């Protein structure tokens, strides 16, 4: 199976996870979206050298992975391309910021090192929290929640169609590469001289397929000016989940939880 097929299959599996009937999937999408946005803001708001505070915020995604039944190993595998890129942010800080902050087991830790580690942890946590949202909420539900926040309909529609047409583009790219491989047996990869024609064919085929899909949607009653994205009403369970999560996240942001726990063992 080609890499393109694996990518399309991965998107399909992620959509299957979002459509499962679990307690976290049943939480209102607007509630999960607001909690995720709050978590992102709180994680980013930590000062660069507050590494212990950022590490304490890891309790939220790890706890959700544990109680929701989602595989943490599977999440790391799906995000294997994104996470290394995120971890590269601030990797040069130790070379530019050499101010000594503390000494651990005879090793001097500089401010640049703390900043680098803090940025890496922030990046990993934000990506994991976003993955939790997408893995437990369908794209249609997320777009419906965005409409409830009065995001312009044209923006929400574009976001929805882009997410749906990505699979179309990948499927067409897989067909093009398979056709080329059948016509050039034994050749490794695609010759450079055919890159241009293949990309042009891929663009034309994808546009034709997308046009056919859009016409099918219109025949089934899709209109840009109609409220086609609807979600269920908020229940008491959703409000309870929202209150618990927001209170816990704000408490983790205000209080130095790890330092307090460490003080209990030291004393």
Number of helices: 14
**Describe the biggest sheet?**
2 strands, antiparallel
Q: How many domains would you count in the coordinates?
A: 2
Indicate the proportion of strand residues. under 5%
Q: What value does the Rg take, in angstroms?
A: 23 Å
Number of strands: 2
Indicate the structural class: mainly alpha
Overview of the molecule:
- The protein has 267 residues and is mainly alpha-helical.
- It has helices at residues 3-18, 23-26, 29-44, 51-56, 59-68, 72-78, 82-87, 93-96, 111-136, 139-148, 153-183, 195-219, 236-254, 257-266, and strands spanning 100-104, 107-110.
- A hairpin with a 2-residue loop joins strand 1 and strand 2 (107-110).
- The longest helix is centred in the middle third of the chain and has 31 residues, at 153-183.
Write the topology of this structure.
Elements: H1 3-18, H2 23-26, H3 29-44, H4 51-56, H5 59-68, H6 72-78, H7 82-87, H8 93-96, E1 100-104, E2 107-110, H9 111-136, H10 139-148, H11 153-183, H12 195-219, H13 236-254, H14 257-266
Helix pairs in contact: 1-11, 3-9, 3-13, 5-9, 10-11, 11-12
Descriptive key words:
single chain, about 270 residues, mainly alpha, 2 domains, about 5% strand
Brief summary of the model shown:
This protein has 14 helices and 2 strands, in the order ααααααααββαααααα.
């Amino acid at each position: 199976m080609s890499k393109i097929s694996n990518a399309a299959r991965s998107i399909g599996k992620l959509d299957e996870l979002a459509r499962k009937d679990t307690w976290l999937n049943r939480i209102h999408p607007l509630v999960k979206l607001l909690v995720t946005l709050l978590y992102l803001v709180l994680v980013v708001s930590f000062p660069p050298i507050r590494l212990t505070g950022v590490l304490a915020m890891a309790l939220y995604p790890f706890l959700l992975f544990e109680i929701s039944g989602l595989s943490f190993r599977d999440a790391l595998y799906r995000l294997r391309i994104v996470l290394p890129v995120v971890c590269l942010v601030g990797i040069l800080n130790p070379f530019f910021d050499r101010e000594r902050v503390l000494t651990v087991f005879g090793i001097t830790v500089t401010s640049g090192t703390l900043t680098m580690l803090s940025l890496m942890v922030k990046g990993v946590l934000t990506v994991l929290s976003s993955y939790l949202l997408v893995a437990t909420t369908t794209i249609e539900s997320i777009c419906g929640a965005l409409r409830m926040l009065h995001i312009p309909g044209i923006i929400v529609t574009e976001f929805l169609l882009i997410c749906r047409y990505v699979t179309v583009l990948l499927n067409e790219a897989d067909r093009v590469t398979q056709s080329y491989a059948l016509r050039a047996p034994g050749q490794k990869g695609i010759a450079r001289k055919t890159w241009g024609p293949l990309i042009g064919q891929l663009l034309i085929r994808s546009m034709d397929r997308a046009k056919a899909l859009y016409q099918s949607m219109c025949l089934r009653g899709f209109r840009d000016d109609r409220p086609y994205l609807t979600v269920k009403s908020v229940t008491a369970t959703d409000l309870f989940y929202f209150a618990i999560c927001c209170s816990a996240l704000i408490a983790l942001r205000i209080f130095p939880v790890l330092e307090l726990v460490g003080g209990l063992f030291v004393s």
